Amino acid sequence: MTELRALLSKGLRPGVYRWRSDLSIDQVRRDVTAAGWNFVLLDTTGVHDKPGFLDVCATAFHLPRWFGRNWDALADSLSDRSTGERELVLWEGWRELLDHDHDAVGTALQIFAEDANESGRLRVFLREAKDVPDLVSEVPVV
């Protein structure tokens, strides 16, 4: 059993976490699904603003076509899509987005944390960057 699968099997609490790992995305997907969880890859590499972030979210989370591309719509759509099943979101490229649009990352983190607390199913992993900016310094590490 891999370290990630063991972590998920122990019943990781819903929330947003920083995660130090060199596992490939394919290996993460395999481990997450083998643990019986849903997996979402949120890859914002190359995204530099809120509209680009929301476009990536629409695709990654399979949001409905009527998704309004604003923060309230994202929060509502995430809660509407809750199936009750545990889900791990691997957010790649968050650091690059943060360099260009600090507010977008801050708001996204708030929305993810609120959904995790309300739904009880969402765990968001921010793959650890080489530096830890202030915005995420308080985010717990798993």
TrEMBL record:
Q: Which Pfam families match?
A: Barstar
Q: Name the InterPro entries on file.
A: Barstar, Barstar-like_sf
Where are the annotated coiled coils located? Answer: none
Domain Barstar (barnase inhibitor): where? 38-118
Q: Which domain of life is it from?
A: Bacteria
Task: Provide the family line.
Answer: Belongs to the barstar family.
Protein name from the UniProt record = Barstar family protein
- Report the source organism: Kribbella jiaozuonensis
The organism's taxonomic lineage, starting at the top: Bacteria, Bacillati, Actinomycetota, Actinomycetes, Propionibacteriales
